[in-house]
Design goal:
Length: 271
């Protein structure tokens, strides 16, 4: 039965962002801006909300999608004058931590994996494999650098140098976000460089100022806003098409490769 007293309760919308950020294959949608925008809008549209809570569980992925989600959360927080509380679950690393920086406060478990403030590119060199298989690679380009880092061609030193320069630009952007969002909170120890790509336990992350404290969303929100606070968990509905695609049996090898790639990203952090 509807209760009028529910109207006067403090309310905190709570959304959960989970998974590898960006594209993870044809049959599985990763965490991206277009897929989360509506959910973020819904959370910030609740006028009576005291704040917005965001749980995140992500090992990272696309730097662009990470930054788009981070920027949009901050934009909505400022526009709607709402505080953002972020709760890291198993992992908030790399792009996952970048998104977490959208929070005015970040909480985690003492055993969560936090950090990995760096940029990575990985590939394979398959040129010897196709030689052994008797396969000839034919590439025709307009633009001498169009085949940069082609895994079926010999690696070129100038390609690696160019990639490193791009990575340094992306890393600088990441560092800027962390320093601005955690301004006055970071504790840079003489023996610890926060921006090498290293990751830490939640306990160490708190010592370094990467998070503000420990606790689950329910625990912290009730502590801050009272036991009677209404925590409204918002979820993105799964479309009929996504349900069909998630059960698709076609292209099983390609689907398996997508799964293995996603799993390898999680395994960097022991999951």
């Amino acid at each position: 039965m509807f209760s009028i007293f529910k109207i006067f309760k403090k309310i905190i919308p709570h959304i959960r962002l989970s998974g590898v950020i960006g594209s993870v294959g044809k049959f599985k949608q990763g965490l991206d801006f277009s897929g989360q925008q509506e959910l973020i809008d819904k959370a910030f549209s609740i006028s009576r909300a005291q704040a917005v809570a965001i749980s995140i569980n992500s090992p990272g992925g696309s730097p662009v999608q990470s930054h788009l989600i981070y920027s949009y959360i901050r934009k909505q927080a400022i526009k709607n004058k709402k505080k953002v509380l972020v709760f890291a679950e198993d992992v908030a690393a790399s792009g996952g931590y970048l998104i977490a920086c959208a929070g005015d406060e970040i909480y985690a478990n003492s055993s969560s994996i936090i950090g990995s403030i760096g940029v990575i590119y990985s590939s394979f060199g398959l040129q010897e494999l196709i030689k052994k298989a008797g396969i000839q690679r034919r590439v025709y380009t307009a633009g001498k650098n169009k085949s940069t880092l082609d895994p079926f061609l010999e690696e070129k030193e100038e390609d690696v140098k160019r990639l490193k320069k791009i990575q340094l630009d992306l890393h600088a952007d990441f560092i800027k976000v962390v320093e601005e969002s955690r301004s006055g909170k970071l504790k840079k120890e003489a023996s610890t460089d926060l921006f090498t790509g290293e990751f830490w336990s939640g306990s160490k992350a708190k010592e370094l100022g990467l998070i503000d404290g420990f606790g689950s969303a329910d625990e912290i929100l009730k502590k801050k806003y009272g036991e009677e606070v209404l925590i409204e968990k918002l979820e993105k509905p799964k479309s009929w098409l996504n349900k069909k695609l998630s059960g698709a049996k076609e292209n099983q090898i390609e689907n398996l490769l997508d799964i293995l790639e996603e799993k390898s990203i999680w395994q960097r952090y022991g999951f």
